[in-house]
Amino acid sequence: DALKIDSTGAVTKPLQPAFLAYPSALQSNMSSGTDLLFATEVFDQNADFDTSNSTFTAPVTGRYALGFSIRLQEVPDDAAYVLVTVPTSNRVYYYIYDTGVFDEDGAYIEFNGSYFADMDANDTAKVQYTQSSGTTSTDKSSASYFYGYLVC
After folding, report:
1. Torsion angle in degrees (nearest 10) through CA of 93, 18, 69, 92
2. Which whole-number Å values give the CA distances from 102 to 40, 62, 75, in the listed order?
3. How far is 91 from 86, CA to CA, in rounded Å?
């Protein structure tokens, strides 16, 4: 069924693209340009999220809500900044953090970003980590998530 209406009038679309994924383990000592890994799916309604490379592929052209909650650990205070991006085929969405405010390595920093992205059929989206200078010591906790769904 592509569209269901139950006896209460609630409408669901079982094949509507929607996914939620999280890491299967800690990702350690990430360097600049690292793809963040999300190998475990909570759900993937239309099988559009690839756990082998943590990439979402839009099945149809539309507007997609994409977001993440990333817990970084041991963020070095000698980095100029850390950046989490969601690169899509049409543009890159940024979340930047100035680590100059630290007087020691940041034990836990939570990054939460949500974006309304225009995507064409077969466009892709993933999450990446970038760090400007500093020690390569940042870890991504398994208490992190990446999600997306077709809005319209």
Report:
1. -10
2. 32, 40, 9
3. 9
Q: What is the mean pLDDT of each run of 10 residues along the chain (152 residues)?
A: 88 91 94 94 96 97 97 86 92 88 72 95 96 86 96 94
Q: How far apart are CA 32 and CA 137, in angstroms?
A: 11
User: How many CB atoms sit inside 10 A of residue 43's CB?
Assistant: 10
- Partner residues linked to 72 by β-bridges: 109, 140
Q: What angle do CA 50, 52, 55 make, to 5 degrees?
A: 40
pTM for the model: 0.89
In angstroms, rounded to a whole number, what is the distance separating the alpha carbons of residues 123 and 21?
Answer: 18
- The confidence score (pLDDT) of residue 102 equals 67
Q: How far is CA 92 from CA 64, 68, 118, 120, in A?
A: 14, 14, 11, 14
